[in-house]
Amino acid sequence: MAEFTSAGLRAPVLRPRTTAGIVLSTLFAANVVAVTALFAASGPSSNVLVSLGRLAGLYGALLMAFQLLLVARLPWVDRRIGMDRLTSWHRLLGFGLLWTLTGHAVFIVSGYAAVENTGPIDQLGTLITTMEDVLRAVVALVLILVAGALSARYARRRLAYETWHFTHLYTYLAVVLAFGHQVAVGESFVDSAAARAYWWTLWGAALAAVLAGRMVLPVRRNLKHRFRVSAVVPESPDVVSVYVTGEKLDELPVRAGQFFLWRFLSRDRWWQANPFSLSAAPDGRSLRLTVKAVGQGSAGLRGLRPGTRVFAEGPYGAFTTAHQTRDNALLIAGGVGITPIRALLEDVRGHVVLLYRVRSEDDAVLLDELVAIARTRGAVLRLLTGPSDQDGPHGPVLGARSLAALVPDVADRDVFVCGPPGMTKAAVRGLKELGLPPAQVHAERFSLAG
């Protein structure tokens, strides 16, 4: 095949992901300094445990506000960092939140118990019955502990997204209760006009971000574009493509490699939101998603009728050519992970090599399209067949030695990887062993949480 290369593609001075990371890190660090300064200005308590409890509570409130910001789905942040990384950071902050709020409760109760010369349980009962809004704080802590337990990997994997999401909504109640407690009894809050202004601004900004990113923007886009199913095309016995059209799709800020949360408004599906990536580069006229039947939700797409209205949230994700830093690219896909890779094949710049890992050629979704696109743009398509645990002549099929043999100039390419978690992890590990820097390796997990 003839080779196609782009001329003079240069990495930006500062990558989009780096820019967004610096902005968020600086914002968080500045708020840590502000919270610490406000705590210091209010003066320490006469009891060390009470002082530690107050400080832990303030840091917990800050972590809670930033957790809201990370999952607000603001486009500027999401398309630079990606929902998977933002969700991971949200989860890490969640562990910090559990520790700080638990520490807040333990230190405060222990400190007051020491001052009153009573037991912790008795002191907790006294605080609940005598101090305003302490009961709210206890309820908020319980709700956060429950949400944290349900977000643990073991529990999350066994819950349907809708169940997890419904129970997680109670954390917003916890936010309201915690803020009410802070307003009523927080010493650094009550005694300082500057502290009150700061906390109101912080919480107001966090809640406004959630409202804008998760409610206002999706509703506005759906009212503007009026998405609906235009066609349902079986690709194989267990794979189906759904075409979605609408109004003014050329004005939708979507790129190849991104995904939407699709809610098909039929009688039996309106309550389900599923993350499916685009399987074709957007052309301003329609959007296409291609799904393999791996569960009841995805299997039911085959029965969708043309004309069904669609509520689509997105586009989301940083798995796009906006992060490409080299002239050429390597695309690695496994199974149905080919769908965003197939869209990227149309959009990625320079000469492209596509490695498609499947059990057999019959499992290669959209293979005819891939062959046609590869031929048109002079890309190299290699179908790697065989069981997932089968090695090739150079060891693991997507290990370092095999990748180097299949793509000798891999170090000079950006690499986009999408597939099952085990395959993705193996490929990323192999690329790391070959010395590729993280800036050249792009892998994104298309999921809602957990």
Structural overview:
By secondary structure, the protein is α/β, with parallel strands linked by helices. It folds into 3 domains: 16-222; 226-316, Elongation Factor Tu (Ef-tu), domain 3; 321-443, 3-Layer(aba) Sandwich (Rossmann fold), CATH 3.40.50. It is 51% helix and 16% strand. The protein is built from 16 helices and 13 strands. A 5-stranded parallel sheet has the order 9-8-7-12-13, sandwiched between helices. It is elongated and about 80 Å long. The two termini are 43 Å apart. 39% of the residues are buried. Residues 1-12 have low confidence and may be disordered.
Q: How many domains is the backbone divided into?
A: 3
Main β sheet profile: 5 strands, parallel
* Order of adjacent strands in the largest pleated sheet: 9-8-7-12-13
Rg on CA atoms, Å: 25 Å
H/E element sequence: HHHHHHHHHHHEEEEEHEEHEHEEEHEHE
How would you describe the shape?
Answer: elongated
Low-confidence stretches: 1-12
The CA-CA distance between the termini, in Å, is 43 Å
Number of strands: 13
Provide a count of the helices. 16
Strand content: 15-25%
- The percentage helix is 40-55%
Mean pLDDT over the residues? 86
Structural class: alpha/beta
Tell me briefly what this model is.
The chain is α/β, with parallel strands linked by helices and 450 residues long. Helix 1 runs antiparallel to helix 2, helix 1 crosses helix 3 and helix 4 crosses helix 6.
Throw out a few tags for this protein:
alpha/beta, Elongation Factor Tu (Ef-tu), domain 3, Rossmann fold, 3-stranded antiparallel β-sheet, 13 strands, 16% strand, 2 iron, 2 sulfur cluster binding
